[in-house]
Amino acid sequence: MENKEVNEEVNEKRRITPERALEMLQADGLDVTLEQAKNILEFLRKLANITVSKYLKRRQ
């Protein structure tokens, strides 16, 4: 599978692409690069995963 195909498959699951995140951040007045937008998305995904995991552990 080509890298582009893998990225498209991942983007279907995650829905927000780095390009879309860049547009959203710039619309809010933040001057970021595409690489920074990718890093921000990675961080937010990790934070979301940690939050969900902690929530589910507390429910048990």
Helix-residue proportion = over 70%
How would you describe the shape? elongated
Structural domain count: 1
Number of helices: 3
Strand fraction: under 5%
State the end-to-end CA separation: 39 Å
Structural class by secondary-structure content: mainly alpha
Low-confidence stretches: none
Question: Could you walk me through the main structural features you see in this protein, from its secondary elements to its overall organization?
Answer:
This protein has 60 residues and is an all-alpha fold. It has one domain. Helix content is 80%, strand content 0%. The longest helix has 26 residues. The protein is elongated and about 40 Å long.
Short synopsis of the structure:
This protein has 60 residues and is mostly helical. The chain has helices at residues 3-14, 18-27, 34-59.
